[in-house]
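Bench log, entry 3. Co-assembly request; chain sequences pasted below exactly as received.
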Amino acid sequence: MLSQAMFPWLLLTAAFLFTLGALGVLIRRNPLVVFMCIELMLNAVNLALVGYSSYLNSEEGQVFAFMVIVVAAAEVVVGLGLLTRVFSIGRELDVDDLDEMKQ
Amino acid sequence: MNASTAALLAGLVLLFPLAGSALCGLIGPVLGRRFVNLAGTLSIGAAFAVTLVIFVQVLGAASGHQSTTATLWNWLDLGPGNLNVSVDVTIDQLSVLMLLVITGVGLLIHVYSVGYMEHDPGAARFFSYMNFFIFSMALLVLAANMVILIIGWAAVALSSYLLIGFWYERESAVLAARKAFITQVIGDVALVIAALLIFVNLTTAPPACIPAHGTVCPLILAVPQHLYTLSLPQIFAHASSLGVGSPLITLICILLAVGAFAKSAQFPLHTWLPDAMEGPTPVSALIHAATMVTAGVYLIARFHSLFDLAPIASGMVACVGMGTAVMAGFIALSQVDIKRVIAYSTMSQIGLMIFAVGIGAYAAGMYQFLLHAFFKALLFLAAGNVIHAVHDEQDIREMGGLDSRMRVTAWCFLVGSLALAGFLFAGMFSKEDLLGFGLINGPGAPALYIVGIVVNVLTGLYAFRLYGTTFRGEPRSEAARNAHESKAVMLWPVVILAGLSALAGWILQWPVAFGPHLIDAFLNPVFTSPGSGPIAKAPELWPGVLGFVIGLTCSLIGIAIALRIWVRHDLDPSRVLARPGLRLLPRLSFNKLYFDEIYDALLVRPTRAVARGLRRVGDPVMDSWIKGVSGVATDFSSAFRTIQTGLIRDYASYMVLFVVIFTVAVMLAAGLAK
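Structure output for the full assembly:
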């Protein structure tokens, strides 16, 4: 059981991790690192969800956390698949170089 | 016949031509001419066979049970008190008679077309359209729901349009097709308005209470309920709820009559029919003589329950019919295109049918329809043979002397002309029959009968002017001199139709001598069923015989004068016509009473002038408007286009930015709410 006093610190930790992840997504150019940053953001959300679940004494937050884990796993599969494909056709792994969406 | 048999048979009659149309149109061009000829004619043959089965069933049914209404499927159901349309068909004596002519004469004309279209590259398209016409016409006569009837009504106009403009490289054909279609649409609109008026106003009639012995009427009678239906049996059963002779039912009947006039080329909507002769000749025979143009007669006969209750509208119908008959007969006297002469004679004969249904002699009108289908299809097909023989020449001044060169066609044409003029053959029976009804029925009787015998004289005149100038005398052109007889496939249908024209009247009249003919006995149950009003009374024996003799004499006078002028050449009409009072007549007749010119001056030119004026004003105004609006849209979107960089990091930044803005906004709102 989490003590009530620790709850704000937990939320702050989650917010810090989320900001770290978001900044990573915005700043880093290597798609692998961008992916890891997205995972960081998702896990920050998980942390907040589980924290609330414990704080409010309800299971719903944990159920949502599981949902997020499943979605994150699926997203990694698709994303890594895309990255392997980009790499195999001989393109440089740089998100700024992959700007075909403009067309 | 029970409902499921009726549904099956009617479905088959509809299905065969539709399938034939699809086959010819979709895979016909690929599979070639032999396939098209087979599919196009066999489909109609099959439909005719099914029609014969229906006919036998109806003949064999017990009296009072000949009429069957069946539902094929429910098409539209918007709940009670709202529009419900089910695809219903009625099989009764009237629809089966129409079907017999549509598929029977249709079959002969399709066989003829195999020969006529032999060298035309568009034969597949032609048979596809013709089959589609048979389907739509069958739908029109089978329909037991006004919506379905209107669909059939519009579909025959469509096939007529397609077939008039069949040779679309010719500008005149395209213009004629357009004219026919536009005129038809006037009729369609009238029909739709009539349907809406019926839909809104039809109620259950309040039950009449006749206090019988020992009973008392209830103080409050049941309030009439709105029916909101377009089912024909329902409409006919409750026709009296529209009021007997009321302005409402008169208006409805006049609208129905306008629809009928447009379809049947009656004054003032008649100008499209002569132009429709631009289509191939089998089309003129099938659509513009035997079947489609008689749909107006059918419509009035089908809605007789309503017309019985609207004497003013019926009287108007009778007058318009007889007026058109005289007018068209007069114009036919001086036309020089062989098909146009026959077209005007069609208009005139249909005028007589319209007159008959207008005075309530429905069976007489349908009798004329039946026999007219035979001899008019015969005349058109024979004319087609002539046109083929003289290399697509249609001007009768370039013909002459064809009787020794095309013996079979000439004899058949003579039979057709006699039937048309009303001597010995078909026309003598049907025309004198309906004129006989005119003796004692209709507005101002026997005024219209007297006009009718004038029509008889005119008919004899133009029929034998046409026969004389085309077939007798010396050939007046090289093509006519070298003409020769057509192939067997184009002769047999003509010969069969000639046989029908010669014998049908005798067969239908012989067993009953001076009594009402067999068609009368066959159809009258339809027109005397419960809910119908009184129908026209047949004249007594001796006045009837007198009327017959006078009518026949007038026909003979017409024939005799025509023979003297155009065959023996011992009578010259030009001296009579040179008199001051009569000098105008030939010009009026030749120029079709200037109807096209009048419509052009009254309708076409003003409309064009208004359109041109509006365009001069409207173009600058509308252009500036539209350019202004589109300019704003372009500027707006080009401002936003720059943020579409294609860089993932940019998109992510926008996302984060707006999440932050949104979060701050929510927090501020929550703070304000406290």
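The beta strands of chain B are 68-77, 84-91. The first strand of chain B starts at residue 68 and ends at 77.
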